[in-house]
Design a protein that fits this description.
Number of strands of chain A: 10
Structural class of chain A: alpha/beta
Largest interface: A-B, 37 and 37 residues
Helix content of chain A: 40-55%
Radius of gyration of chain A: 18 Å
Oligomer: homodimer
Order of helices and strands of chain A: HEHEHHEHEHEHEHEHEHHEHHEH
Chain lengths: 325, 325
Amino acid sequence: MTDIAMIEAAAARLKGVGRVTPLLSSPFLDEIAGRRIFVKAEVLQHTGSFKFRGAWSAISALAPEIRAKGVLAFSSGNHAQGIARAAQLHDVPATIIMPKDAPALKIANTRALGAEVVLYDRVGGEDRNIIGEELRLARGLTLIKPFDEPLVLAGQGSCGLEIAAQAAELGITQADVLTCCGGGGLTAGIALALEAKAPDMKVRPVEPEGFDDVTRSLASGGIMRNNGPEAGFCDAILTPAPGEITFPVMQRLCGAGIVVTEAQTRQAMREAFLRLKIVVEPGGAVALAAALFHGDKLDQEVTIATASGGNVDAALFADVLAEGA
Amino acid sequence: MTDIAMIEAAAARLKGVGRVTPLLSSPFLDEIAGRRIFVKAEVLQHTGSFKFRGAWSAISALAPEIRAKGVLAFSSGNHAQGIARAAQLHDVPATIIMPKDAPALKIANTRALGAEVVLYDRVGGEDRNIIGEELRLARGLTLIKPFDEPLVLAGQGSCGLEIAAQAAELGITQADVLTCCGGGGLTAGIALALEAKAPDMKVRPVEPEGFDDVTRSLASGGIMRNNGPEAGFCDAILTPAPGEITFPVMQRLCGAGIVVTEAQTRQAMREAFLRLKIVVEPGGAVALAAALFHGDKLDQEVTIATASGGNVDAALFADVLAEGA
C-alpha cells in the first residue's frame, strides 16, 4: 500500500520530468474569502492536470519488458492525457478507453499525444470493462487505473510534498488543504504526504452538487455511490464512488467533505482567470470555489486549494467568462 | 547605470516577495514551431505582469523617509498595478496617472490595490506630464518611470536571472530569447542579465505591427518613433519610442526586432490558453506569436518567449477564444 516512502520514490522518479507547480495567491481572493488563500496550480502540470504525476509514477515503475508491450487506461480525459504523454515519453504504446461524450479537447489531445483512443457509449450502457479486458488480453497491455492503484496514488502524493515544502517556505504549517475530489487519488495522495510532512494541515475533499459520494461516504463511514446522472459540468471528477484503496486513506486522514454549486464553480473559474491568470476547468475549480465561498466550514486561517486541471474547451470557457461580464 | 550587480541586488530584495515564475512548455507548441519553445510565464507574477519586479525594486530601494511621502507613476495599466501593489506592501501612498481609455480592468485593479488613480484624456491631447508634475511637487512624491529608470531596469533583469538558471537546469545554454517590447525595460533588463549569466543566449525584441519603433530603431541605429495612433490591440506595449536608457543597452546586446500581426497575437493567446493553461493579454502574447510563427527569423534550436502580462478584460478574452472555435 502507498506510504510516504513510495511517495518520495515517485517524486524522485518525477524529478526533472514533472513540473513543480507554483503556489499562487492574490489579495483580491483573500478579500473575497476573508482569509489567506493559496492555489496549487496543477493546471500548469504537463498535460494540464495533476494526472501526469500518477501516470508517470506508474509507467516509470514498470519493468521495461512489461512496459514495452504498452499500457491501457480508462478515462474521461485527464488521466487519459497523463497516461498518453507519460507513455509517449517512455516510447511505449498507450490504448485509452474514453466515453464518446468526453470533452472534444480531451479526446483530441489524447490522440495527438500518440495514444490509440477507443470510444464507448457511456450513456447508452456499453460496458467499458469488457472492451478494455478484451484489448488488454489480446495485446498484453498493463492496465493503469486512475486512482485505485498504489503507484498512481504515490505519484499524486508528490503534489502534497510540494505543498508542504512551498507552504513551509512561506512560514505556513497549519492550513485547510482543499482538494478537487473524484475517485480520491489526488485527495488521498496529498493526505498521505501531508501526514508525514505537514501534520498540522487537514485535507478537505471538495465535490460538486449531485456528485457528493465522498462527502456522504466520509459522513456515513462506508462507501456510498452517486445515484444521479453520470455526466455533468465538472466532467473530470464525476466518479461514481470513492475508491477501495483511496477511501480508507481519506477516512483516516481527511476532514469532512464540502459540496459546492455549479454557480460557485463558474465564479471560481472566473476569479482564477482574473486574479491568478490561470485556466481552470470545472472539475478543477471546485476546491477554489469552496475556499472562496464556504469559509464558514473551514477551521484554519490559511486555505490551500488545488486547481487540479485546466483542460476546458474554449467555447465553454468563453461562455463562463461572458456570464460574469 | 544598471549592471549585473544592481540586477542581483534587485533580485535579492525581491527574494521571498516576488514570484519565481515557471518556464512552461508543451509538445503541441513545439510542433507548431518546429523547434523547442519555452514560455517564461510572467503572467503569474504578482499583479499579473513582470512590472511588479521593477516596481518592487525601485520602491524597496528608496530611503524610508522619501518613500513615506509616496510614489507617482504614469502607466496604461501594468506598471500602475505593479507600483500600486509594491507601494501597498510597503504601506506608502501611490498616485497613478492613467489614460482614461486604458482597459477597465487595469484601472479598477489599480484602485483596488490602494492607489489614487488620476485619469487624463490621452486621445484629446491632455498632457500627463503637466498633471503629474503638479502632483509631484504638491505632495513631495517620487516619480518612478516605467522603463527609463535604472532601478526598474534592475528589477526586470531579475526575470533574466531566472531564465538563465531555469534554462541551465534543463541543460539549455543557447537560445533565442523573445521579449514583448514596449519601452524596452523588460528587454534591456533581461539582456543585461543574460549577458552575464547566459552569454550564448540572444535577446530578440518583439513588437506589434504599426508599433515597431524598437525594431526600426535597432535597424537604423538611432531612436525612431511610432507615427501611428497611440492606442491599439496590444495596449501594454504601445510606447511611442524606445527609452534613452534602454535603447543603448538593446543596441549593444539584442538581435534584430521581430514584428507580428494582430491575427498572430490572437492565435498565440489561444495557444497559451489551450496548451499552457495561462491567460495572456495581447501585449504579453507577441513574443509567443513570434516564437510560433516567425521561426524563419530565429537562429537557435531553442526559443524562450516571455508571456509578460495577463491583464486582459474577460469580454476581450472571450472574443479571442470564440474566434478560434
